[in-house]
Amino acid sequence: MGKKGKAPSKDSAKSSPAPEGLPSGKKKTKGKREELSEDEKSKRQANRAKVTSSSSWTGKLPHTLLHEMCQRRKWNKVDYDMKKIGDKGMLAIAILSYTDPKTKEVLTIRMFDPTYNKISGEGAMAPQETTMEARHLAATVALYRISYNTNLHMMLPPNHKNLWYDLDDFRKSLMIENPHKAKKLFDVDPFKTLVEEQKQLQQKAKNAEAKDRQAEKQQTATVLTSLDLKHRKPETKRKEKTIKKPEHTSKVSFPRRAWEHAAFVDFEESLRQNIESSIRLHINWSSKMINAKDIKSPERNVLKQKLLSLNFRPPHVEEALQYKDPLSFLLFHLPEDDLPAYFHKRKEDSKNILEISALPLEIRNKIDRLTESGISREEAACALENCCMDEAEAAGKLTAAIVPHLVNAVEPFTSERESLEIWDQELESLESMYPEEVQSLKAGSCYTIDIIKEFKIKLKVYRTKNYPSTLPGIIVSTFERNYRLPNYIKQKVLQNLLQYITDSHLLGDMLVFNIYLWLQDHLKEIIENPGPLLSERELLASMKNDEKATSNWSTSNDNRSRRKNHTSNLSAQELASLKKEYSERVITSQYKTMLEARKRLPAWKKQDVIVDLVKSHDVTLITGETGSGKSTQVVQFLLDTLQRENDDFGKTKIICTQPRRISAIGLAERVSDERCVTCGNEVGYVIRGVNKTSSQTRIRFMTTGVLVRILQTDSSFLKNSILLIDEVHERSVDTDLIVVLLKNLMGKIQGLKIVLMSATVNVDVFKNFFNGLGTCHIEGRTFPIKDYFLDDILEIVDFKIRADKFRNYSGYDIDDKNEYIRPGADSKFFRTGQINYDLVCDVVNHVDQELEMKGNNGSVIVFLPGVAEINRCCSMLKEKDDLNRMVVLPLHSALTPEDQKRVFRTYSSKRKVVVSTNIAETSITISDCVATIDTGRAKTMLYNANDNTTRLAESFISKAEVSQRRGRAGRVREGVSYKLFSKRLYQEDMIAMPIPEIKRVPLESLYISVKSMGIRDVNKFLATGLDPPPMKSLERASGMLATIGLLNEYDNSLTELGRFISLMPVMDSKHGKLLIYSIIFGVTDVGILLASILSIGTMPFLNDVKVRDKVKALLQKFEFRGDLLAVTEILQQYLQLEDTSSKNKFLKEHYLSYNKVKDIMSTRTQFYSILKDVGFIPIKSQAETTRHLNRNSNNVAILKAVLTGAFYPHVARVQLPDPKYMATSVGAIEKDPEAKAIKYWIRNEEYIDRLQERKTNTKLSDDARDELPARRAFIHPSSILFSSNGSPNSEELATLEDVDEANMKKTFGSVTVAKFPFVVFNSSQVTSKLFLREITPTTTLSLLLFGGPISYEVNGSEHSPGIVLDSWLPIRTWCKNGVLIKELRTLLDQAIRDKLENPNYSGTNKNVEKPNAVLSLMERLVHVG
């Protein structure tokens, strides 16, 4: 802003431009004004008119005003920096200067346009045609910046007044956004401010220089890293080198302002010590080591240089490089005082109230004496507080804590009186032997013994109350300012000493003499060579923490696999019985009738061909048109052949997969009927939560997801099996995975035959994928189907609407709004895929009349995209059915099996109209269907890898799907197909085949399923599939799984959490984490209920605009819990009711949907069944076990932490505005922040992707800096945590889905989110903004314990400000706290394995009831966090 320079010379002053009004080259005559010529006058007037944009302006011009103001303030003459802006014109900047009368220094300030934007190149000043115009505009800018608080603008020309007003508006807005910047840009005395800033900088430099001089004067101390005189290092304290960033630095760095506003977390000292002790007792350090060959890798060498640049000691760095996370290893094992200054704990890093400097002198002296053992002052103060300020007891506790797993006490305990006698006797003996070395400091409590006098090294011992049954307090130090023994050496001495005491069984007898002798023999050696921070003995001891659990895991996993996939062999008697039953059944009239019906199907003609193909090929592809009977007949052809020709009644299994449960159930029941058996015997089905099979079952229908789970545990289940994969054309993720797995299993499993079946598929794709593929095509029914497109339909039904509504269809206005218009098939409304329900009803009525005239009692299927559309259409059809001639039935996957079965029944004298999603397209067959009405729309889940969001998007279907829907109408007789889209749209806009699901959904579940099968390179494995998923999506899946803790961030292996989640057939990892965390932390029932609520994809209330405010008012009672826990509380009240009438009343009073609640309860039962099946909870619950599994069910903090762990990375940082205060009678108090001023920030996926690309490809340019780590989001108005201090704009109201205007405009006074630093959300929705749904507030500590990977900020120049969560979220804390949290996560993973490793199928689960110290500590942390 300001610059120094020399005073302007006289020549330069003369060259300054002449004041306005004098022509160039003319001089003033002293005392007399020179007359101007007429030409000069007219020229001057023209210039004035050009500057002022007015021919009548007679006042002073801006340059003159600025010149006069500078003269009054005794500033130098104004100079201008002129610049030409291309062809646009000239821009100028006024340069003000001031000469200091004492120093003769010249201060200069460039008065640039403060509104100028460098990116757009625009500002308040526009380029001018001439330099004169540009100079005056620059003068106006300068005038405003130094005189904005005056009325000077009244003296300016009109066009310059406008510039003044623009600058004034900018200054006012800047005062709100950035007051500091505004005050700096607009300053009435800028030179005074500049001088003061320079004085402050000079004073700061003087203070730093004085501090350095003072440090040099301090007495130097000799650091005893060796007892050799050559190696003793004199220094005040450890000298720190300036930290320089190496070539490859950390991938994330945040500015100081980000750290100032970052969330803060700290532990109380007692809790921190408790955490550290637990880690030392349970951690397995050997599991954290890397291969020896990797230590010398280039990456490790870069890491080594970075650690050395941070001033860690070279021997410590060499040791740390053997571990996966060297920095964490160093921070954990080094005492605080031996850490580089960069990692020291500052006052601002602690929230502990205890201020040591304010304590009494006696206590401060005790703390100073205890810190000689190598601990921090905070640790010493905490130990004293826990021991009621007893210094000796505190010293004993601190000594025992050095190696917590060693024995530190023996029974029987010595009484205090006897202890004192033993202590005095031992002291007398030592004084008699070493009179000059022993010095008693406090009778009966403490004395010292010289060990190495030359270097002032002494042994100091404290008597504990039960000594010698308990360890005394032991300190080995110099106790001298001139000599200092490093703390890590002190700690190493005590570690070895305590190990010696334990190995020699010295506890219980006089110890000090033995301690003295041991130190005489070993102290010098330890000082010369302290050895590694983690000794070999400690490393071996840590391995024992994991050996037993690892062995148990291996055994239990084998048992689980054997049990899950065990199939009992039938006895000879059972086989004979089955053969006899089959022989008797095939000759019954009922079977023969069914057989005749089967023979009429097109598939029957291909029976021999199909059987021969399966016999002669390992893989067979059977395609069949709609109605050919392939799904019901092929399995029977194969079974009949096995039974008739091979006499096989038990050896070979027939398994048929289906993409949906309704088709698996429906086909199993249909085939059972055709074979005249009860479903569950010869023919059965397996879907999630239901296994309707027996030892006699030969044909098993199952969903593709069930087969994936079977293959993932034991592929030998397929031995001697014929596996049929139906509907492969749908290309679901599970289907594609099964196809890849089966290709890899070909030739490896005895007796495995593979049959692929599809309605419409590209045969060449499968021929290229499977070598030697056998193919067969089954023709469909020959019943003709007549097609009508929208072009014909509009004319047939004479569809017309009022003109005032036609704007929605055509996109333009109509003059006569009372006129009726007939919209075209290619109008805007129909082209965009919107559905007119009046038209749908008209077509249904037309079809009904046409069929009635022909005496046709067939049914009608209407295809709609989703459940909401189905409900609306059903409601309108029922309203318009005045004569009650139709039975309108919805059909979608969310219906119960009982409701779904209604569509297969016949209704005498009434027309059956089935309104369905694409579930009726291929999965089921409604045999009496003769007409279809196709809107051409479907809802599919689309995944956006750029922002990691999944959206249920509605779009036009493919031509193949249109063909499938059409085929539903011609199964049993002639049919008709009405298509509510134009022929042009069908031919030009619809794609040929649907996009494979593997290309449009998140791949986390697929990735972890493949990983759990032992496949290391998942990307390579999936690349061999029919349609390899996009590499970017796979990389995103891998990164996401590491982020949520299911993959190890160092070697990409499955964590224990990931291993157990892969065993559970849940929808995704979110539900799996929710269920496992709920069991582990004792909120089992609530967690299962939460997972059940999430599984229905919506809230369980009535979808009625009229009751939304009432629902929100109900939930508002539990606002502190958040959306999901509030809903859970209401449903828990419902579950406590027993009789039906009370439940129905509760549903009505709380506006709950009966169907949704029913679905939730059904899913809840399934989750219990799944968890019992894998042994995570006992099958037979007992009171004690149930209590333990739900011990924290009323602990809201634990519930929020569980949701945090399940939902991460769906977390938002809550940014509160600057605090505001109001005056009261008792003083100023802080006001609650306004809801609209609170901002929410979530992870920016593009930023994370850019970092990942830089990590894998170092040649990429550093473009990540162009992206911000977080992006802004907003709480959805449907949340009970949503608060608004005003009405939203109309655009938001128009684009928000499921939110009515009344709800939006309502103001909710509570701002619960302001009390929490973070919120987690279940889903996000992009409309006019990015909205977050199903919000739950949470704490910083919960986020750190259950969130993403933690890294340390090491890019600062002076001090590490904290840790970074998942590369995007800075958290301010002491670095050692970050290490403890990281290691606690490792222990949590081990605790999950310990709790869930032994599946229990019989009764009680002892592992569940057994308390776990790590989990208890985690629960305590969550509760206090």
From TrEMBL:
GO terms for biological process: ribonucleoprotein complex biogenesis; RNA processing. Keywords: ATP-binding, Coiled coil, Helicase, Hydrolase, Nucleotide-binding. It comes from the Eukaryota. Residues 611-779 form the Helicase ATP-binding domain. Residues 1-58, 546-570 are annotated as: Disordered. The keyword Chloroplast does not apply. InterPro entries: DEAD-box_helicase_OB_fold, DEAD/DEAH_box_helicase_dom, DNA/RNA_helicase_DEAH_CS, DSRM_DHX29, Helicase-assoc_dom, Helicase_ATP-bd, Helicase_C-like, P-loop_NTPase. One of its GO terms (cellular component) is ribonucleoprotein complex. PROSITE patterns: DEAH_ATP_HELICASE (PS00690), HELICASE_ATP_BIND_1 (PS51192), HELICASE_CTER (PS51194), RWD (PS50908). The keyword Nucleotide-binding applies. This is ZYBA0S11-02498g1_1.
